[in-house]
Amino acid sequence: DLISVTSDMTLAPASVAYIVTDEDAFVVSNTGTFGRTESTTEMALPAGGSNLFDLSSVLQDGAFLRGTSVGDGSTSETITTLDGEVVSEQTTSSGQTTVAFSIDAAGVDLSGDVADNVFNMTIPEAFPFPIEGAIEQAVVGYTFPLLPSEEEQDVAMRLDLRDLTISDSLWALFDPAGELPRDPATINIDLAGKVISDIDWLNFATLEAQLDQPVPPIAPTRVTINEVLVSAVGASAQGSGEFTLDMSDMETIPGFPRPEGDALLQVEGANGLIDRLVSLGLIGPEEAGMARLGMGFVARATGSDAFETALEVNGEGHVMVNGQRMR
């Protein structure tokens, strides 16, 4: 009972240029280039036609929209002027870009992967120097349900910025003496989970009323921390873990669903970073001492300037840190 359509499209390298003006003498000019792009899209719709005001039923009947796109990269330059004076100038470039998406009864699944990102921005009135930087690879992803269900549904979020660098002029703002290591930074947030959702996101006429309820219409039942990683200025912190959440128990931990599970946090280079921040004058000796005291209270040493914290919450709501009961 479905009609399926599959399309394959290839776009040759192209360039674009346009100018936008308004009555206040603002002028925005943009030029850009786009590399070869190949896309594939697959769609299935009910054979008898679809009601745009009842898209939930369409998905429940098996309709879907899926696609992927791979491009060779792009460049862009945007200049904004006011009365002939440059307000801002921005240039960006990127390497291969991959985008994938899926919309069906299971929900929305989006992902993007962009390599070799370079950016440069100049705002003369705000900054006397250009804001420059690069990201070797940027990955984003989201998964969330669209239809209500009494069963658990998947949710996920990912943000991964690998080898982030900024220009020396930006470093010089807060570290003119070069005290901090300037190695590329990495930030990765990779979370997943399960929820029970009563929201029909495609019922636009009642969506506001669905969200405006005294009891949250979305109940998280499981949270999985695949990885949370921050690595920069000579230090790193990496965590992972998994917890189940009992929404029927909001009293064991007042105002919060009772969690059960464990997590592990590993930190390296923290003391070295504290020393550098004191040397820069960004924190004082008292703040440094408090930071070290707090770290010693909840973390155990695993090596030279390396620590870890093991957190466990049991079924009775007891909180254990490195085997010691804290609650």
Question: What's the layout of helices and strands?
Answer:
Blueprint: E1 2-11, E2 14-21, E3 26-34, E4 37-46, H1 55-60, E5 64-71, E6 74-82, E7 85-94, E8 97-104, E9 107-122, E10 131-144, E11 153-166, H2 168-174, E12 185-197, H3 207-211, E13 218-232, E14 235-246, E15 258-268, H4 270-280, H5 285-298, E16 300-303, E17 306-313, E18 319-321, E19 324-325
Antiparallel strand pairs: 1-4, 2-3, 3-6, 4-5, 5-8, 6-7, 7-9, 8-9, 9-10, 10-11, 11-12, 12-13, 13-14, 14-15, 15-17, 16-17, 17-18, 18-19
Helix pairs in contact: 4-5
Could you characterize what this model shows?
The chain has about 325 residues and is mainly beta. Helices cover about 15% and strands about 55% of the residues. It has 5 helices and 19 strands. The protein has helices spanning about 55-60, 170-175, 205-210, 270-280, 285-300, and strands spanning about 1-10, 15-20, 25-35, 35-45, 65-70, 75-80, 85-95, 95-105, 105-120, 130-145, 155-165, 185-195, 220-230, 235-245, 260-270, 300-305, 305-315, 320, 325. It has a 19-stranded antiparallel sheet that branches. A hairpin with a 2-residue loop joins strand 18 (about 320) and strand 19 (about 325). Helix 4 (about 270-280) packs antiparallel against helix 5. The longest helix has 14 residues, at about 285-300. It is flat.
